[in-house]
Amino acid sequence: MVVAIFEQPIGPLADLSELLYVVALHQASVEYREDVSVNAEDISLFLISRYGVQCSPENVAEFILKDIAGKRNDTILQEGGGSTESAELNQESVAQDMSIFLRSKFGVTIKAEDLKDLLVEDKLARMKEELETAKEEPPKEEVKQGNSNSPKGEKSSEDSPKMDLVELVAMLMIPEFRKLEVMEQKVEGEGRASVSDENFEFCVNAMIHDLASFGSSEQPSLELTPSTVRDLFLRYGETTLAQDNELIDEMVKVARTGLGDKDQAFLDKSTLAKALTHDIEQYDLDREDSITTNYDDVFGNPKMKNSAEAEEPQNAVSFVNKFTMETVDMVAHTYFCRTQMMINWLFFVFTYFAYLYYETPSFTRGCPRFKYMSGWAENKTQAECNIVNSILDWLISFGLICAAGMLFVGLGSIGNNLKKTHLVPCLFAMAFLIFLTVYFPLTFGIIVPGQEPLIFMRLVALTLGSVSTIARLRLIVIACKQHVDLTSVPFTSLKSEAAIKKASAVKVAKLQENAFALHGKLTESSAIRSYFGQALTSFAKLDPQYRKRFNWDDCRQDFSSGRIVNEDGVFFSGRLLSGNLAQMLLCVVIMGFGYNATKYVRDNWIPLEERANAVAESLEMVITLAADQTIVKSAVDGCLEMFVLFLLRVLYFLDNAGLLRLDCILLGTFLQSFCERAFFEDEDDGDFACSLFTSAPEQLCETMDPIFRPTTPLGKAMPLDDVASAINITSLVSPISKVVSQAMSDNIASQVNILYPRDRSMVVVPVAVAAGVATLCALIITLLFLPSITATTLKLRTGVIPSVCDPKTRTQYTFNVNSGTFIFGSMFWGILASSLLVGGIVGFILFLAMWQVTAYLIMQGVALGIGISVTLLLKWLLKRTCRTKLYRGFYRNNPLRANLAELVNESFNFATSVAFAIIRMVKLLFLAAFYVGRIDTKFLAPGANEYLGGLVYVDIFPDYFIADILSTEAHRHPYIERLGTLYLYKLKYGPTFATRAGCAWRLLFVTGLMPWLQKYRVASRRIEKEPENTENTYSCSVHSV
Length: 1041
What we know:
This protein is mostly helical.
């Protein structure tokens, strides 16, 4: 079974892509800064968002970036004080490396001397151009003031110190350099990864070799002098740092730690180790394996037994700890127990739908009902009432949901942190949770007859409330204790903190291993004479490497072994985990609904011998079974008139034949005396006799005379229609109408009974299968969610998915950074809608296949499909044979036969394309129904998802999902977690931790280890601004190198 298989980039190119991704995440600006740098404002915002530490950008620049970032390395125009000899040596080195690179990459041979001349000519031309431009520009002092809108004396972003990619990597490796001091003691912790002694020694020897071959000295060992350090700077293109004599003297001093002033020191493994680690002794390696937070690793926590000693930070670094409601922080995830937070959310959701939803007042219920079969004009009053009251109903529901969320989650999470917590608020929160847990079941009950799904939701709500109360009690016990061994406390988010620290160590170690792998041994036959140049050449020739992830077995092993969090460092957001847990519970709810529906149709299906008109009676709410009485009476009137005319014609015939002689005078006298009696012996006969004619008895002769003498004064026959009006047929209309109406109803019932499923299985089986498919669909979506989070995170890190490095997608994701609040509800309702749609479609198709009315159509379709499938199979075999025999690549080896085959194939495909269209439609419908619940992946291509220039998005929720992951990554990526720890160390120890000299040594080491990063070192120090190109696209991926 394939879960979320994709090809994950690995190797140095993937490492570089992830580093660019981390820098882009760390940048707080809406637009991506192409210089690949992190400034003071970025770090200041990160500290307040991640740790609640408010430190101004000025303090960040002074106490963090001042030593790390150093001075600007202006490579375009050298300032005064530079050494001409050093510049020439640097040009020679660059020319030699360029010559080697051109030969290895493109096979172009250009002498280093020619390249040096080109560099000199190019530099002179640029200097001349800059000098001419400078005459027309304002003085530099005015330009350096930055934005004209900035306050007077405030530094612009261009003048503020920045940490580029090389400096960032050097900072990430501080813990690895710290391990050099304990390497002799063989300190090995669980999950701890360090630089091997062999790799470190090789890197040191490579630096010495490159420096010896670059300078005038040819000795294998170089004396540690300011001149040596300066040459090393120049060798790596750091011209400005090479001119800083104060820095160089300090670097030599720290490398000679432990030696006397007269002792001779050489640049070797021992001195370089001292230089790299002398200023980071405060970094505690034991904290990498401890189950503690980064903040507690640095500043300590009296509540935690295994944290650092609680100390106050130095007064020189001014910052304030802000209250951030860390117990409900769904971005930085700073709560103590993630399980407690998840349970509180689910307790709120299930309590709302089990109780509050049904008790919410509704004004719409008081509005008059809409008139059936009426238009807008007739229903104007009803529409106005419903619109106004609907707005009120939704405002009330919105307010109720917000209030319930604040109470259930907000108050229920008090004390769910590791900072100082007062006992009284915790006890109040626990009492409130107990009240919420027992109030609703006692007030509204749990058991509702015939409502099994509602009963299930109420039982789940009761269980979640009880578990949340117990978890709250545990937090109170922990809050009352001091120096608690948190390793023994289950269900804490501290294990995730420890996993991220382990992952950062593993990833940095892997970063170094991949870099070391590009450094091979130099041979005498090779044209490359430096390890620096060889590493550049190896990186330039490097092909992208991939490994497939995840098939089902690998995914199961990765999650069960903890490799996802301990090595990949994927941090799962509490919001996403809460939604996934809600999806698991919904799978049970859907299964319960399906069972209930199956049981209902099984019990309510009426057997053939019992149904009679029961089916028609049960459908009275759907169709009108009783005939329209107006239409029936009109039809009966017409029939009776025809009958009376027929009777009159018979009487007229009998009268003319002498068989019937009627005395109208005698008939009128009889009726008059008969109808005037006080009562009648036969009341029914009396009613019939007195209402038989429409005229009075005394006028009966005049009315009946034309029957026997049908002539007018003019001698013409009188129409019998006029005579028929004398007969009263009103009494016959009602009974005959009932007979006709009943006959019409019986006919409808008969027709409905014909359509009624003949067998119970025709309805029970489709409903049961639909329920099973819906449950299976919900279960698949639920199981795919965590692997999808992992796969999406890894794709973002390696640039497979364009994200924060692309200007368009970065703007889109930063704009939707607070749209993660849609995710929990979208996961909840999405999986419900998706499972019902998929299950409903499958059940409906199965019902059509079993129903006696449409079964023959399905049979015809199946027979047609089998016939087409067999034909297509034969055609596929023929096509495959033709493709193998007649084609090679995109060319035909026998055009005649190929053209004949193409003609036959195209004619055949034209006839069968309608089947392909139907199949494609069905597949897309099924996939669309399935992907309604998968907000974790995009269903539509970018071109099909955006309209009106990006103003309208058909499916925006996958972007919300990615934006939430990026927000979590910006706070919890393993590299950023390590950087955050080092920032806190700088705030605590100030200038004594990670000094400028130590940072410079580590900068040189990283440059020698990963020389390809120099591209970004130069980019972050560029003075002149490149022209903008709106057609360029940016990506964190460098796999096209």
